[in-house]
Amino acid sequence: MNSIIEHHASVGMSLELENDVMMDVKRDNTLYTQWDPSMSEDAQLLWRINNEYRLRLSRAQNSVELLLQLLLTRADGSVQDAADVLYMTQQHLQNLAQEHRDWRYRFFYVSSSDRRMVQEDRDVFRALAGFSRMQAAHQRVLSEIWHLLGGVHRPASFFTTVANGDLWEVAHNAIADLSQFEGYVQTANQH
């Protein structure tokens, strides 16, 4: 537990116990994740990797969807190749999200009708192994996405920029963050 607390301090977060639930809290006091403190370290790891992966996958999906919508509303024929690649990327990310959902219902939850996370050591290890296999398969798809995006001419910033920034960059960063998830797992596993 001390190594988890030290890790949190190094990344600007704290652990707080509230109503018998342990929570990761960011510097701005927003909730990051929460779990039952009586969970084993392996169960906590499972809880955290599921939530972090779901967060990163959702961020990638949302940013690609917003970028695609923006291109379709502003675009002329010059960005059709980029729009086609983004559509394929969107489809790939939807498939990854469905596979992650399937994994949760097969391994993460006690049952499909009772959406409580598994707690028994055997079930937790089974879920972690299933996640590892799923994530390895997802890495191959993410490599394909990078290949697709790398092969298309980036649209002019006029087509991709909004008041909050360039959605092309936001989408690329979100996909990169998802692609680098293995690094998060290794760090989380050490703490």
Q: What portion of the residues fall into strands of 2 or more residues?
A: 5-15%
Low-confidence stretches: 1-8, 17-23
Alpha carbon gyration radius:
19 Å
Give the helix/strand class. mainly alpha
Which terms summarize this structure?
7 helices, two-stranded antiparallel ribbon, single chain, 191 residues, disordered N terminus, mainly alpha
Walk me through what this model shows.
The protein is mainly alpha-helical. It folds into 2 domains: 1-38, no CATH class; 40-190. The chain contains 7 helices and 5 strands. The strands form 2 sheets. Strands 1-2-3 form a 3-stranded antiparallel beta sheet, covered by helices on one side. Strands 4-5 form a two-stranded antiparallel sheet. A hairpin with a 2-residue loop joins strand 4 and strand 5 (165-166). Helix 2 runs antiparallel to helix 3, helix 2 (41-74) packs antiparallel against helix 7 (181-190) and helix 3 (80-108) packs antiparallel against helix 4 (121-150). The longest helix has 34 residues, at 41-74. The radius of gyration is 19 Å and the shape is elongated.
